[in-house]
Amino acid sequence: APAAAPLIRRKRIAPLIYMMFCPCGTVEHSWVGLISCYFFCLLPQVENVIEQEGFSRQKRGYRNINDIEVNMSDPLFTKQWYLINTGQADGTPGLDLNVAEAWQLGYTGKGVTIAIMDDGIDYLHPDLASNYNADASYDFSSNDPYPFPRYTDDWFNSHGTRCAGEVSAAANNNICGVGVAYNSKVAGIRMLDQPFMTDIIEASSISHMPQVIDIYSASWGPTDDGKTVDGPRELTLQAMADGVNKGRGGKGSIYVWASGDGGSYDDCNCDGYASSMWTISINSAINDGRTALYDESCSSTLASTFSNGRKRNPEAGVATTDLYGNCTLRHSGTSAAAPEAAGVFALALEANPNLTWRDMQHLSVLTSKRNQLHDEVHQWRRNGVGLEFNHLFGYGVLDAGGMVKMAKDWKTVPERFHCVAGSIQETHKIQSGNKLVLAITTEACQGKDNFVRYLEHVQAVVTVNASRRGDLNINMTSPMGTKSILLSRRPRDDDSKVGFDKWPFMTTHTWGEDPRGTWVLEVGFQDEEPQRGVLKEWTLMLHGTQSAPYIDQIVRDYQSKLAMSKKEELEEELDEAIDRSLKSLMSKNN
Ligand SMILES: [Ca+2]
Ligand SMILES: [Ca+2]
Ligand SMILES: [Ca+2]
Question: Which residues form the active site (predicted)?
Fold first, then answer.
């Protein structure tokens, strides 16, 4: 096996050609240098000085919890800590979706339709009926236009109704609580309530009325038993691809996915729906910022919302609508987290209906907040372009206020390109205590039409077999030094035959990075008994843009991730432009 090549950190050009000329002398070539030269040398000299008086200014965007004034007549509104957290149910004040700011700016989901793909919706519920979009609804479990939940004594089929209330429950009507996007329309797609799932039911649901439905929310996937590796089949994959390419008049259907409830025994990168590039996979935090016991971690999760509290506080659950006109305080799981995200995305779509499915992911990366989220297992880290991420929470908790403000001015990101950066297809042995290290050095298709310079998603397509699949660990490190955990130990997975067959592990953690350089894959065992395995393929696929996605965006908050990323892009573009002109000068002189 080739040893790991040294990591190349590709940032700035060499210091020798790093100075530039300015009328007052040579200054360091950088964005700061250029601005200093402009202000101190090129602008007219100072002629007189006036003393100025001080006055007060308030920082915008800073939200004092005591200043929030949202009055709703709905009896459960004050229990909905995930909307406005004032410390109810032993929670941490301020740890919420910041919907109040979006509402105060006038965004409530008007004109946006969200489909709940689940076990049906009680569309006669008085808190849902006025926002129910019957024309966009369908029942694929029993093939009729009425996705009403099937009755059982234990109210087992209450899931979809609870999810629908989180998104679209009406406001100020004295009933239950308030949806995140309380003026949005909700459609019911009943598709979970039949003895077996089929590819055609999934595909039909995901592609139902893609010109009417804007956002699809799914809180389901392969069994969370910690030993399943499964994903969308042929028709569903095609339906998803069609959705992002053709849905919403070509801007793309928005698929929101719950990252899974398998807890530390499972890894959501083994769930092909959650780990798909076309879905926005959402994890959950509890009301004091910690991880929920059922949270699964993986590198494909983009962001988080909220589920219940860990304490046995009966009011710490997610308050929402329930079957047969009832309300509940007890909705929970990452199932509860995905619809909250769908609601936030509906607010963003009202602010800017031109957002594409990729714009929504960029906005999620840029506006999600670390806030007070705390993962005891995985540290928060910064990637190669300074974006802070966590292996369980993704880029943090969604911030509805931040998202609508950025969405309003947002310019659609540049065209997306796909580059196969390299592929290793020889057979390599893996043994306990002796991990396999492989390297791919790539120019990211530079010089070709499909050059990828600014990363969005990265996929590592891997074929590997092991004497115990659950003991396998796979990590991948980018040229800028960001390590993604592609697969962690799953103690219940004792497969020794199937392994992973061309499985596309996905990471969002290298978002915005320059992919040129050396990528390193490490495959090993975290085991109790010695294991062995064989890796047969690692293919590295890069997805992203050629031109800088943030360079033309309007910055209103100079402390924001957008401001930081745009500054970085400007510096890099300047470096590269000067590099190019120096090279052409030198070639002319030779
Ligand atoms: Ca029906
Ligand atoms: Ca209500
Ligand atoms: Ca799972």
Answer: 118 (charge relay system), 159 (charge relay system), 335 (charge relay system)
What are the residues facing 521 on neighbouring strands?
Answer: 438, 476
66 in a domain, yes or no?
no
Tell me the pairing of strands 215-218 and 254-258: parallel
Residue range 240-287, pLDDT digits in tens:
999 999 999 999 999 999 999 999 999 999 999 999 999 999 999 999
pLDDT at 402 over 80: yes
The Cα diameter of the chain in Å comes to 86
Query: How far away, in angstroms, is 297 Cα from ligand 3 center?
Result: 9
What is each CA distance from 46 to 23, 86, 384, 481, in whole angstroms? 16, 51, 41, 46
Q: Is the pLDDT of residue 537 over 60?
A: yes
Which ligand minimizes its atom distance to the CA of 143?
A: 1
Q: Which among 391, 342, 334 is positioned nearest to 220, based on CA atoms?
A: 334
Distance 76 CA to ligand 2 centre (A): 8
**Do the Cβ atoms of 481 and 383 come closer than 8 Å?**
no
Whether residue 456 lies inside any domain: the answer is yes
Q: How far apart are the C-alpha atoms of 251 and 478, rounded to whole Å?
A: 30
Residues 201 and 103 in one domain: yes
CA distances to 129, 195, 256, 342, 458 from 141, rounded to whole Å, are 21, 9, 21, 23, 35
CA of 47 to the centre of ligand 3 (A): 68
| Tokens linked to 36 | 């200093």
Tokens describing residue 446 = 């530079």
Q: Which two tokens stand for residue 346?
A: 């509906």
Task: Provide the domain count of the chain.
Answer: 3
Structural domain for 16, as ranges: 12-51+550-590
